[in-house]
Design a protein that fits this description.
This protein has helices at residues 2-29, 41-51, 53-66, 68-73, 123-190, 195-230, 251-261, 263-283, 329-395, 401-435, 441-444, 453-460; strands spanning 79-86, 89-95, 99-105, 108-119, 289-300, 310-321. The protein has 473 residues and is α+β, with helices and mostly antiparallel strands. It has 2 domains: 2-77 and 123-286 and 328-460, Outer membrane efflux proteins (OEP), CATH 1.20.1600; 78-119 and 288-322, Outer membrane efflux proteins (OEP) (Single Sheet), CATH 2.20.200. The termini are far apart.
Length: 473
Amino acid sequence: MGGRTAKVGHVRRRVVRSGICVGVVVACAGFAASAAHGETLAEALAKAYQTNPVLNSERARQRATDENVPQALAGYRPQIVAGLGAGLQAVRDLLPGNTFQSANLKPWTVGVTVTQTLFNGFKTANSVRVAELQVQAGREALRNVGQGVLLDAVTAYTNVLANQSLVEAQRVNVAFLQETQGIVQKRLDAGDVTPTDTAQAEARLSRGRADLNAAEVNLAISQATYAQVIGNPPSQLRPAESVDRYLPRSRDDATNLAYRQHPAVLAATFDVDVASTTIRVAESSLLPTLTLQGSASRSRDNDPTLGTFGTDQASVVGQLNAPIYDGGTGASQTRQAKQLAAQSRLMLDHVRNQARTAAVGAWVSHEGAKVAVAASEAEVRAATVALQGVGREAQGGQRTTLDVLNSQQDLTLAKARLIVAQRERVIASYTLLSAIGKLDVKTLSLNTPDYLPEVHYHQVRDAWHGLRTPSGQ
């Protein structure tokens, strides 16, 4: 009898030691990857900022928007048209006395016409203003897309980190359950336990393997998402930290910043200015236009009377056109522009409300994430103490192997919740930074050149000609 008791105690001590080992390994895994040098979150964000196709396509869209300004400025510039005509012409003229005169002519005409608009109801000036405001709105939209890409990159990075830790925790858990199942089987063979204990151990092992498979699936998905957002597969990711140092001190500060400086709000503000200025563009069709046109031409062999060999002409003509009635088109376009301006003002209010709501939600989520991390850390500490206590009690014969299994499982689940809480903590801080409009390269001090859309704008704004883009395409 004493030998049997000693054998059971030895088995329980092995289970306890394995359970404590699981706690140590999972704690070391935590929410971090290997301590060796790897890709940091800042480096991943810099890569995403440089190579993300969504962001680069938005930059191309903004460069196309820049071209609206030189197109509008073209209204101030003269329009020059050159013409050349040539052909063959057979002429047979009837002269007095019923005589005929015939000839085969080779007429040609060359000329140039220069047209300069002097006044068009301020259409050009207002069109330039609209184009410039569209550029400003586009820049804010680009900044908003940049924020979204950086936030997606943070999410992808932290998901991979968390899922790697969860996979490692589940692998350790499966190893522990396999060892436990083997021990229980040996005890069953020795007659120390019943088949029920073996079935419980096997069931727990099967569940552990299913949890490991689910964790590996989630890791594979997060790695694929990482490669899509960042531009390369993840490799030896370093621990990620929150950005609390850049965040506002209160919820009111967060909502005020979002209301004033979020790029979506600023873009909507510029859209209101665009719509208001478009009204004046529409009204210009109801005003007179004044143009000045100069032309010069030379023609040869184009007189069918055969009385003139050639003609040289030059003229300067001023023309004033005043619309009297256009069927109501101009008036309808003006009314339409006014309704669109009203819509843009209502949309601005909507975007501001959205920004305010998003800021409140981000603030609350961030505060909740901090509480969740603290609670999860406390849970892990308590579960660790509980496992140690159950282990000591098992050594004294007061606890069964199943009790140790349950306690170890509680610790594994607690550490998994801590991993998830730490991931949400990092994401929540970046989400709040995005909600106030400050998730950008400058604020984060990323080691990458900031994309400056105004560089391309100044390269093309005053361009009078040329088909190549500043990039040489």
